Amino acid sequence: MNQPVDVSKSLPDANGLFGSFGGRFVAETLMPLILELQDEYTIAKNDPEFQRQLAYFQGDYVGRPSPLYFAERLTEYFGGASIYLKREELNHTGAHKINNCIGQVLLAKQMGKKRIIAETGAGMHGVATATVAARFGLPCVIYMGATDIERQQPNVFRMKLLGAEVIPVTSGTGTLKDAMNEALRDWVTNVDDTFYIIGTVAGPHPYPAMVRDFQAVIGHETRAQMLEKKGRLPDSLVACIGGGSNAMGMFHPFLDDLDVKMIGVEAGGKGVKSGLHAASLNGGTPGVLHGNRTYLLQNEDGQIIDAHSISAGLDYPGIGPEHAWLHEQGRVEYVSATDDEALEAFQVCCRQEGIIPALETAHALAEVAKRAPGLPREHLMVVNLSGRGDKDMMSVAHHLGEKFGVKQL
Amino acid sequence: MTHTSRLEHCFAALKQQNRPALVSYLTAGDPDAETSRRLLHGLPKAGVDIIELGMPFSDPMADGPAIQKAALRALNNGQTQAKTLEMVRRFREEDSTTPIVLMGYYNPIYCYGVERFLTDAAKAGVDGLIVVDLPPEHDEELCQPAAQHNIDFIRLATPTTDAKRLPKVLANASGFIYYVSVAGVTGGSAPTPERLEGAVAGLREHTELPIAVGFGIRTAEQAATIGRFSDAVVVGSALVDCIENANTPDEAVERVHGLVSELAESVRACREVNEPQVC
Questions:
Q1: What positions are modified (N6-(pyridoxal phosphate)lysine) (chain A) (predicted)?
Q2: Which residue of A lies nearest to B84 if distances are taken between CA atoms?
Q3: Domain for residue B250, yes or no?
């Protein structure tokens, strides 16, 4: 056993800091609201009735627990480690995002908020938010970059069907970061009645910790399921990272189990060296954006640079502050997978397991393709299958279309 | 602090004249470096008492469309933190009295390096900083180091700042207090004067610092009404719109300085008892 590192579950500290990362870098107008949210969340966390409701909706509405599935064919295909898939794509709405949205909407109700807003990139968080808003009868506004609206049409339609208003964001570069700016502008203008459901483990404190806690159900279940199946903990965990919520949800319950190796996979786009990527840890530097200090893609003058990824959900120039901290602590290994590697892994998963993964998730599978072959069959590797790929049909057709006789879009 | 700042001088002089300060906001480098320089250098003559100069940022979360676009225009034309500081330095060669406050977001300062930034800013002749995304919870980042360089840290108070929070907001504030007239982004809806007057009076019970009011003030009439009870009136988006709407750099300069002159005339007259109609 190694020396225990200080990855205590008591973080973040009272100021929302994970080491030097995190914090509450927001306009004064939002500060009282954020402090109130922190208090309300602390109460909810320790309130048996809140936890009972959360468990109820996670079960009967979301469909939890999600299975931990032994991917026998994928294991054979790579010929090394035993690969298990944590089937978050089987959740209602098709991804892990709903775990967090259910938690936050319950909090919004507890706080008496009358209106829900959210930002979305690929649209999965937007769909999950629109879903819980519909379920709880709250009007919902989703901010989505105009560029993303173009490439994620099916999700835009889903959100509208669910009764949400989808507002295209053309400011800045019209992608996820600008959608987040616009949601923050809405929030600062409608502080009294609006609850902002942030979709990832980023933003001002308490969001990174709160979203992590709501997503930690993934890791807690995985732990119990693996113990039941194999009588021991997994050897490694692999998850893709945009903002990092599915990875944090998977990793966090294992942080103190030092024998469990964790690998976070960033979107390498056309390669980290090309400059066209979304790998904040592997190709970025520390800075302050969207309420927290973390690693960012930025130029030397502190101006944020656009991220590039085949997957809209990873296309964000930052990363959750706790990941930044775990990166500096060395507790989690952060690597990247390129667009091409992800596309390849995407197809392998489809054909070997009959599971169409989200393009985001395919980045995690791409790392499995690199790592699993060199490991023995006794090595238990869990991949967070964070979402399903139905939403990505258009993008994939665009990239692989000719191969399948699909007309280029 | 024995050091008497330009801001203190300015507010003391205006108190003698019984009028509020006119504070203008422009983004440094908007629409381009040379036009921006001409705009800046002409402001005091047009009647500005205190200059707020925006440090452009790619992701200005607290700004409305006008200032967002201004930042992008400036960045697309190559504006940097170093160039903004250089603008101040050159301005100071001609004008040693008009206070300049740099306004913006933390990241470009953080990346420049806090100590290096403060040293260069002090040397260039910067008097104060307004950094939107640094609440008092993060005072150790920039607010406290700025004091070591005799640079004021101007704090924003907002409609959501309640009595419980106000002492925290005021604790390390210096220069003046910037009261954000409405919950929202810059260039948004106009504040209602009655509510504002009450809010400013409430603030005065807790601070000796001058109180400026900004956000949503566009016209000479609004400036006069608010200047009756505040120590300074800030106009930003309306000036920035003049740049956006101009067809040539000359026209931008003319329009901005023209609006400034109108505003200046208005705030100079707003407390004159013989002109109650204007107020």
A1: 97
A2: A301
A3: yes
Asked if A13 is an interface residue toward chain B (Cβ–Cβ < 8 A), one would say no
Residue B252: strand, helix, or coil: helix
What is the C-alpha to C-alpha distance for residues B7 and B231, in angstroms, rounded to an integer?
12
Q: Does B160 contact chain A (CB < 8 Å)?
A: yes
Is B279 inside any structural domain?
Answer: no
CB-based contacts of B106, cutoff 8 Å, min separation 6:
A25, A288, B131, B133, B134, B141, B142
- Alpha-carbon dihedral of residues B202, B207, B210, B214, nearest 10 degrees? -50
Please give the Cα distance from A214 to A102 (Å, whole number): 8
| β-bridge pairing A68-70 and A82-86 | antiparallel
Q: Give the separation between CA A378 and CA B149, rounded to whole angstroms.
A: 61
Confidence band for A56, pLDDT divided at 50, 70 and 90: very high
Confidence class of residue A395 from pLDDT cuts 50, 70 and 90? Answer: confident
pLDDT above 60: residue A84: yes
- Residue B52 annotated among the catalytic residues of the structure: yes
Q: Provide CB contacts within 8 A for A54, sequence distance 6+.
A: A102, A103, A106, A214
Chain A, chain B: beta-carbon pairs less than 8 Å apart: 119
Give the range of the structural domain holding residue B99, as residue numbers without chain letter: 6-269
Q: By the CB < 8 Å criterion, does B145 face chain A?
A: no
Catalytic residue list contains A230:
no
* Number of domain units in chain B: 1
Please give the DSSP secondary-structure letter assigned to residue A392: G
Chain B residues within 8 A of A185 when measuring between CB atoms: 61-62, 64, 184-185
CATH code: domain of residue B159: 3.20.20.70
- Among A21, A184, A193, A303, pick the best mutation site for testing chain B contact (most B Cβ within 10 A): A303
Residue A136 belongs to some domain of the structure: yes
**A222: which residues sit within 8 A by CB, 6+ positions away?**
A68, A86, A234, A237, A250, A253, A382
- Calculate the CA A79 to chain-centre distance: 29
Residue of B nearest to A27 (CA): B133
Q: Are A42 and A343 in contact (CB under 8 A)?
A: no
Supply the ipTM of this predicted assembly. 0.94
Domain boundary among A162, A185, A211: A211
Instruction: Report residue A187's pLDDT band, with 50, 70 and 90 as the boundaries.
Output: very high
B159 touches A at CB < 8 Å: yes
User: Among B55, B137, B172, which would you mutate to test the A interface (most chain A Cβ atoms within 10 Å of its Cβ)?
Assistant: B137
Q: Provide the residue range defining the domain that includes A240.
A: 64-94+216-404
Among residues A66, A309, A311, A386, which one is catalytic? A386
- Examine the domain organization and report whether A68 and A139 are in the same domain: no
Whether B275 is covered by a domain: the verdict is no
List the alpha helices (DSSP H) in A200-242: 207-215, 217-230
Which amino acid would we find at residue B43? L
